[in-house]
Protein backbone atom coordinates (compact mmCIF):
# COMPACT_ATOMS: atom_id res chain seq x y z
CA UNK A 1 0.00 0.00 0.00
CA UNK A 2 1.08 3.59 -0.43
CA UNK A 3 2.85 4.94 2.65
CA UNK A 4 0.81 8.14 2.61
CA UNK A 5 -2.21 6.05 3.65
CA UNK A 6 -0.38 4.08 6.35
CA UNK A 7 -1.80 6.26 9.16
CA UNK A 8 -5.27 5.00 8.38
CA UNK A 9 -4.37 1.54 9.66
CA UNK A 10 -3.91 3.06 13.12
CA UNK A 11 -6.51 5.82 13.01
CA UNK A 12 -9.35 3.91 14.66
CA UNK A 13 -7.18 2.97 17.63
CA UNK A 14 -7.15 -0.82 17.48
CA UNK A 15 -4.62 -2.81 19.46
CA UNK A 16 -1.62 -3.85 17.38
CA UNK A 17 1.16 -6.39 17.47
CA UNK A 18 4.73 -5.08 17.68
CA UNK A 19 7.53 -7.41 16.61
CA UNK A 20 11.29 -7.04 16.45
CA UNK A 21 14.34 -9.19 15.78
CA UNK A 22 18.05 -8.84 16.40
CA UNK A 23 21.03 -11.17 16.18
CA UNK A 24 18.94 -14.26 15.62
CA UNK A 25 16.40 -13.56 18.35
CA UNK A 26 12.85 -12.36 17.81
CA UNK A 27 9.79 -11.42 19.82
CA UNK A 28 6.28 -10.08 19.44
CA UNK A 29 3.98 -8.29 21.89
CA UNK A 30 0.56 -6.67 21.98
CA UNK A 31 0.32 -2.89 22.16
CA UNK A 32 -2.90 -0.98 22.82
CA UNK A 33 -1.00 2.28 23.28
CA UNK A 34 -0.18 3.17 19.71
CA UNK A 35 -1.00 6.00 17.34
CA UNK A 36 -0.26 7.58 14.02
CA UNK A 37 1.97 10.64 14.22
CA UNK A 38 2.30 11.98 10.69
CA UNK A 39 1.05 11.42 7.16
CA UNK A 40 4.17 11.80 5.03
CA UNK A 41 6.67 10.68 6.06
CA UNK A 42 4.41 8.13 7.74
CA UNK A 43 5.35 8.23 11.41
CA UNK A 44 3.93 6.22 14.30
CA UNK A 45 4.32 6.14 18.07
CA UNK A 46 4.13 3.11 20.36
CA UNK A 47 4.49 2.84 24.13
CA UNK A 48 6.52 -0.21 25.19
CA UNK A 49 7.16 -1.24 28.77
CA UNK A 50 10.76 -1.41 29.91
CA UNK A 51 10.30 -5.06 30.87
CA UNK A 52 9.41 -6.19 27.36
CA UNK A 53 11.88 -8.25 25.37
CA UNK A 54 10.47 -6.85 22.13
CA UNK A 55 11.62 -3.43 23.27
CA UNK A 56 15.16 -4.70 23.85
CA UNK A 57 15.28 -6.17 20.34
CA UNK A 58 13.78 -3.01 18.86
CA UNK A 59 16.40 -0.83 20.53
CA UNK A 60 19.21 -3.15 19.40
CA UNK A 61 18.04 -3.43 15.80
CA UNK A 62 16.68 0.09 15.31
CA UNK A 63 13.57 -1.23 13.62
CA UNK A 64 10.22 -2.85 14.37
CA UNK A 65 7.10 -4.09 12.65
CA UNK A 66 3.50 -3.28 13.47
CA UNK A 67 0.81 -5.80 12.62
CA UNK A 68 -2.83 -4.71 12.74
CA UNK A 69 -4.65 -7.85 13.85
CA UNK A 70 -8.21 -8.89 13.21
CA UNK A 71 -10.80 -10.45 15.50
CA UNK A 72 -9.80 -13.94 14.38
CA UNK A 73 -6.47 -13.25 16.12
CA UNK A 74 -7.85 -11.93 19.41
CA UNK A 75 -6.63 -14.94 21.41
CA UNK A 76 -3.18 -14.52 19.88
CA UNK A 77 -3.12 -10.80 20.72
CA UNK A 78 -4.11 -11.49 24.31
CA UNK A 79 -1.62 -14.34 24.62
CA UNK A 80 1.46 -12.48 23.36
CA UNK A 81 0.41 -9.52 25.47
CA UNK A 82 0.18 -11.60 28.64
CA UNK A 83 3.59 -13.26 28.69
CA UNK A 84 7.09 -11.90 28.22
CA UNK A 85 9.51 -13.31 25.69
CA UNK A 86 11.95 -13.53 28.61
CA UNK A 87 9.76 -16.17 30.26
CA UNK A 88 10.21 -18.76 27.52
CA UNK A 89 13.74 -20.05 27.95
CA UNK A 90 15.07 -21.92 24.94
CA UNK A 91 12.34 -20.83 22.56
CA UNK A 92 10.51 -17.70 21.46
CA UNK A 93 6.83 -16.85 21.20
CA UNK A 94 6.71 -17.66 17.49
CA UNK A 95 7.84 -21.22 18.21
CA UNK A 96 6.04 -21.63 21.53
CA UNK A 97 2.66 -20.60 20.17
CA UNK A 98 3.10 -21.69 16.57
CA UNK A 99 2.71 -18.16 15.24
CA UNK A 100 2.89 -18.14 11.44
CA UNK A 101 4.88 -15.25 10.04
CA UNK A 102 6.43 -13.78 6.92
CA UNK A 103 9.74 -12.06 6.34
CA UNK A 104 9.55 -8.29 6.08
CA UNK A 105 10.80 -6.57 2.93
CA UNK A 106 13.15 -4.00 4.46
CA UNK A 107 13.66 -4.78 8.16
CA UNK A 108 14.51 -7.88 10.18
CA UNK A 109 11.35 -8.10 12.28
CA UNK A 110 8.95 -10.91 11.33
CA UNK A 111 5.44 -9.98 10.16
CA UNK A 112 2.72 -11.98 11.91
CA UNK A 113 0.61 -13.81 9.34
CA UNK A 114 -3.13 -13.28 9.31
CA UNK A 115 -3.10 -9.57 10.17
CA UNK A 116 -5.03 -7.15 7.99
CA UNK A 117 -2.11 -4.74 7.65
CA UNK A 118 1.57 -4.35 8.47
CA UNK A 119 3.96 -1.43 8.79
CA UNK A 120 7.71 -1.93 8.60
CA UNK A 121 9.24 0.85 10.68
CA UNK A 122 12.66 2.30 11.27
CA UNK A 123 13.13 3.65 14.77
CA UNK A 124 13.67 7.40 14.94
CA UNK A 125 16.01 7.46 17.94
CA UNK A 126 14.78 9.67 20.75
CA UNK A 127 16.73 8.42 23.79
CA UNK A 128 15.17 10.80 26.33
CA UNK A 129 11.67 10.00 25.16
CA UNK A 130 12.32 6.27 25.21
CA UNK A 131 13.75 6.36 28.72
CA UNK A 132 11.45 8.92 30.35
CA UNK A 133 8.15 7.98 28.71
CA UNK A 134 8.63 4.48 27.19
CA UNK A 135 7.67 6.07 23.89
CA UNK A 136 9.15 4.95 20.57
CA UNK A 137 8.73 6.79 17.29
CA UNK A 138 9.09 5.04 13.99
CA UNK A 139 8.93 5.94 10.34
CA UNK A 140 7.11 3.45 8.16
CA UNK A 141 9.38 2.43 5.30
CA UNK A 142 7.07 -0.22 3.85
CA UNK A 143 3.40 -1.06 4.37
CA UNK A 144 1.22 -4.01 3.39
CA UNK A 145 -2.46 -4.77 3.63
CA UNK A 146 -4.85 -7.65 3.11
CA UNK A 147 -7.30 -6.28 0.58
CA UNK A 148 -10.11 -8.31 2.08
CA UNK A 149 -10.16 -5.76 4.93
CA UNK A 150 -8.36 -2.67 3.61
CA UNK A 151 -8.33 -1.61 -0.01
CA UNK A 152 -7.54 1.51 -2.00
CA UNK A 153 -5.93 3.22 0.96
CA UNK A 154 -8.77 2.73 3.42
CA UNK A 155 -10.74 0.19 5.38
CA UNK A 156 -13.50 -1.46 3.43
CA UNK A 157 -17.00 -0.36 4.49
CA UNK A 158 -17.87 -2.22 7.65
CA UNK A 159 -20.88 -3.90 6.07
CA UNK A 160 -18.54 -5.54 3.53
CA UNK A 161 -16.16 -6.75 6.24
CA UNK A 162 -16.96 -10.08 7.92
CA UNK A 163 -16.83 -9.87 11.75
CA UNK A 164 -13.69 -12.01 11.90
CA UNK A 165 -11.84 -9.42 9.77
CA UNK A 166 -12.70 -6.44 11.94
CA UNK A 167 -10.28 -4.88 14.44
CA UNK A 168 -10.23 -5.68 18.19
CA UNK A 169 -9.93 -2.66 20.50
CA UNK A 170 -8.70 -3.53 23.98
CA UNK A 171 -10.77 -2.62 27.04
CA UNK A 172 -8.45 -4.47 29.41
CA UNK A 173 -7.84 -7.98 30.75
CA UNK A 174 -8.49 -9.63 27.39
CA UNK A 175 -11.82 -7.90 26.81
CA UNK A 176 -12.13 -6.25 23.42
CA UNK A 177 -14.78 -4.23 21.61
CA UNK A 178 -15.24 -4.68 17.88
CA UNK A 179 -16.72 -2.22 15.37
CA UNK A 180 -20.34 -3.04 14.63
CA UNK A 181 -21.65 0.09 12.96
CA UNK A 182 -20.32 2.83 10.74
CA UNK A 183 -21.59 6.40 10.62
CA UNK A 184 -20.93 9.52 8.59
CA UNK A 185 -20.85 12.73 10.59
CA UNK A 186 -22.20 16.01 9.23
CA UNK A 187 -20.46 19.33 9.68
CA UNK A 188 -22.47 21.77 11.76
CA UNK A 189 -22.81 25.41 10.70
CA UNK A 190 -21.71 28.21 12.98
CA UNK A 191 -24.30 30.51 14.49
CA UNK B 1 -12.89 8.65 38.92
CA UNK B 2 -9.61 7.36 40.28
CA UNK B 3 -6.64 8.54 38.23
CA UNK B 4 -5.17 5.05 38.15
CA UNK B 5 -8.03 4.02 35.85
CA UNK B 6 -7.80 7.08 33.59
CA UNK B 7 -5.89 5.16 30.90
CA UNK B 8 -8.92 3.00 30.27
CA UNK B 9 -10.79 5.95 28.79
CA UNK B 10 -8.21 6.02 25.98
CA UNK B 11 -7.39 2.32 25.71
CA UNK B 12 -9.84 1.46 22.93
CA UNK B 13 -8.51 4.24 20.71
CA UNK B 14 -11.55 6.43 20.20
CA UNK B 15 -11.20 9.95 18.85
CA UNK B 16 -11.15 12.58 21.58
CA UNK B 17 -11.73 16.30 21.96
CA UNK B 18 -8.80 18.40 23.15
CA UNK B 19 -9.56 21.80 24.66
CA UNK B 20 -7.39 24.56 26.09
CA UNK B 21 -7.76 28.11 27.35
CA UNK B 22 -5.38 30.98 28.04
CA UNK B 23 -5.77 34.67 28.79
CA UNK B 24 -9.48 34.71 28.12
CA UNK B 25 -9.33 32.75 24.87
CA UNK B 26 -10.38 29.13 24.44
CA UNK B 27 -10.55 26.48 21.73
CA UNK B 28 -11.40 22.85 21.16
CA UNK B 29 -10.36 20.40 18.45
CA UNK B 30 -10.80 16.75 17.53
CA UNK B 31 -7.86 14.39 17.92
CA UNK B 32 -7.78 10.83 16.60
CA UNK B 33 -4.06 10.53 17.34
CA UNK B 34 -4.08 10.05 21.08
CA UNK B 35 -3.02 7.34 23.49
CA UNK B 36 -2.46 6.45 27.10
CA UNK B 37 1.18 6.47 28.15
CA UNK B 38 1.26 5.36 31.78
CA UNK B 39 -0.96 4.09 34.57
CA UNK B 40 0.24 5.99 37.62
CA UNK B 41 0.96 8.81 37.27
CA UNK B 42 -1.66 8.76 34.53
CA UNK B 43 0.08 10.09 31.44
CA UNK B 44 -1.31 10.62 27.96
CA UNK B 45 0.04 11.63 24.56
CA UNK B 46 -1.72 13.63 21.85
CA UNK B 47 -0.54 14.71 18.42
CA UNK B 48 -1.58 18.28 17.57
CA UNK B 49 -0.90 19.99 14.28
CA UNK B 50 1.17 23.17 14.35
CA UNK B 51 -1.68 25.07 12.68
CA UNK B 52 -4.15 24.42 15.48
CA UNK B 53 -5.16 27.26 17.78
CA UNK B 54 -5.83 24.77 20.57
CA UNK B 55 -2.15 23.89 20.46
CA UNK B 56 -1.15 27.54 20.87
CA UNK B 57 -3.40 27.90 23.92
CA UNK B 58 -2.14 24.60 25.35
CA UNK B 59 1.48 25.71 25.02
CA UNK B 60 0.72 29.10 26.57
CA UNK B 61 -1.27 27.71 29.50
CA UNK B 62 0.68 24.51 30.13
CA UNK B 63 -2.52 22.51 30.46
CA UNK B 64 -5.28 20.91 28.40
CA UNK B 65 -8.42 18.85 28.76
CA UNK B 66 -9.36 15.65 26.97
CA UNK B 67 -13.02 14.83 26.47
CA UNK B 68 -13.96 11.33 25.36
CA UNK B 69 -17.03 11.90 23.20
CA UNK B 70 -19.91 9.56 22.47
CA UNK B 71 -21.72 8.80 19.22
CA UNK B 72 -24.36 11.43 20.01
CA UNK B 73 -21.53 13.98 19.59
CA UNK B 74 -20.13 12.68 16.28
CA UNK B 75 -21.26 15.74 14.32
CA UNK B 76 -19.65 17.97 16.93
CA UNK B 77 -16.39 16.00 16.80
CA UNK B 78 -16.28 16.25 13.02
CA UNK B 79 -17.16 19.94 13.07
CA UNK B 80 -14.52 21.08 15.56
CA UNK B 81 -12.03 18.86 13.74
CA UNK B 82 -12.76 20.45 10.37
CA UNK B 83 -12.33 24.15 11.15
CA UNK B 84 -9.59 26.05 12.95
CA UNK B 85 -10.29 28.36 15.86
CA UNK B 86 -8.29 30.92 13.88
CA UNK B 87 -10.98 31.00 11.19
CA UNK B 88 -13.69 32.39 13.45
CA UNK B 89 -12.78 36.05 13.97
CA UNK B 90 -14.53 37.66 16.87
CA UNK B 91 -15.84 34.47 18.40
CA UNK B 92 -14.65 31.00 19.37
CA UNK B 93 -15.94 27.52 18.56
CA UNK B 94 -17.86 27.28 21.83
CA UNK B 95 -19.89 30.36 20.94
CA UNK B 96 -20.04 29.75 17.19
CA UNK B 97 -21.40 26.23 17.51
CA UNK B 98 -23.21 26.58 20.84
CA UNK B 99 -21.03 23.99 22.56
CA UNK B 100 -22.15 23.47 26.14
CA UNK B 101 -19.27 23.12 28.58
CA UNK B 102 -18.32 22.98 32.23
CA UNK B 103 -15.45 24.51 34.14
CA UNK B 104 -12.63 22.12 34.96
CA UNK B 105 -11.67 21.58 38.59
CA UNK B 106 -7.92 22.22 38.36
CA UNK B 107 -7.07 23.70 34.96
CA UNK B 108 -8.45 26.54 32.84
CA UNK B 109 -9.56 24.51 29.81
CA UNK B 110 -13.33 24.07 29.44
CA UNK B 111 -14.77 20.54 29.55
CA UNK B 112 -17.18 19.83 26.68
CA UNK B 113 -20.56 18.80 28.09
CA UNK B 114 -22.05 15.49 27.00
CA UNK B 115 -18.81 13.50 26.83
CA UNK B 116 -18.59 10.19 28.66
CA UNK B 117 -15.27 11.05 30.32
CA UNK B 118 -12.82 13.89 30.82
CA UNK B 119 -9.16 14.15 31.78
CA UNK B 120 -7.71 17.40 33.10
CA UNK B 121 -4.04 17.35 32.14
CA UNK B 122 -0.94 19.34 32.94
CA UNK B 123 1.51 19.51 30.06
CA UNK B 124 4.82 17.78 30.71
CA UNK B 125 7.04 20.12 28.70
CA UNK B 126 9.07 18.33 26.05
CA UNK B 127 10.07 21.14 23.66
CA UNK B 128 11.97 18.95 21.19
CA UNK B 129 9.15 16.43 21.01
CA UNK B 130 6.55 19.13 20.52
CA UNK B 131 8.50 20.83 17.76
CA UNK B 132 9.88 17.79 15.93
CA UNK B 133 6.92 15.42 16.22
CA UNK B 134 3.89 17.58 17.19
CA UNK B 135 3.59 15.33 20.22
CA UNK B 136 2.39 16.59 23.60
CA UNK B 137 2.58 14.62 26.82
CA UNK B 138 0.30 15.36 29.72
CA UNK B 139 -0.25 14.08 33.22
CA UNK B 140 -3.87 13.71 34.23
CA UNK B 141 -4.46 15.63 37.46
CA UNK B 142 -8.22 15.07 37.60
CA UNK B 143 -10.60 12.73 35.79
CA UNK B 144 -14.37 12.55 35.49
CA UNK B 145 -16.79 10.11 33.95
CA UNK B 146 -20.47 9.79 33.18
CA UNK B 147 -21.46 6.62 34.96
CA UNK B 148 -24.03 5.80 32.31
CA UNK B 149 -21.10 4.78 30.08
CA UNK B 150 -18.15 4.18 32.40
CA UNK B 151 -18.46 2.97 35.97
CA UNK B 152 -16.22 1.46 38.61
CA UNK B 153 -13.07 2.25 36.66
CA UNK B 154 -14.12 0.68 33.38
CA UNK B 155 -16.53 0.93 30.47
CA UNK B 156 -19.88 -0.63 31.13
CA UNK B 157 -20.45 -3.87 29.20
CA UNK B 158 -21.35 -2.95 25.64
CA UNK B 159 -24.75 -4.64 25.86
CA UNK B 160 -25.67 -2.27 28.70
CA UNK B 161 -24.56 0.80 26.74
CA UNK B 162 -27.05 2.40 24.33
CA UNK B 163 -25.57 3.02 20.86
CA UNK B 164 -25.60 6.80 21.36
CA UNK B 165 -23.31 6.40 24.39
CA UNK B 166 -20.66 4.35 22.61
CA UNK B 167 -17.38 5.79 21.33
CA UNK B 168 -16.76 6.94 17.73
CA UNK B 169 -13.46 5.80 16.19
CA UNK B 170 -12.39 7.88 13.21
CA UNK B 171 -11.74 6.24 9.85
CA UNK B 172 -11.24 9.56 8.07
CA UNK B 173 -13.29 12.33 6.43
CA UNK B 174 -16.03 12.19 9.06
CA UNK B 175 -16.55 8.43 8.80
CA UNK B 176 -16.49 6.65 12.14
CA UNK B 177 -16.83 3.06 13.30
CA UNK B 178 -18.62 2.33 16.56
CA UNK B 179 -18.26 -0.71 18.84
CA UNK B 180 -21.00 -3.24 18.20
CA UNK B 181 -19.72 -6.39 19.87
CA UNK B 182 -17.58 -7.31 22.85
CA UNK B 183 -15.43 -10.41 23.15
CA UNK B 184 -13.27 -12.06 25.77
CA UNK B 185 -10.01 -13.51 24.49
CA UNK B 186 -8.55 -16.72 25.86
CA UNK B 187 -4.87 -17.19 26.59
CA UNK B 188 -3.28 -19.85 24.42
CA UNK B 189 -0.91 -22.41 25.90
CA UNK B 190 2.63 -22.78 24.64
CA UNK B 191 3.62 -25.91 22.80
From TrEMBL, chains A, B:
Its cofactor is FMN. GO terms for molecular function: FMN binding; oxidoreductase activity, acting on the CH-NH group of donors, NAD or NADP as acceptor. SMART domains: Flavin_Reduct. Residues 7-157 form the Flavin reductase like domain. Keywords: Flavoprotein. Belongs to the flavoredoxin family. This is Flavin reductase family protein. The lineage of its organism: Bacteria, Pseudomonadati, Pseudomonadota, Betaproteobacteria, Burkholderiales.
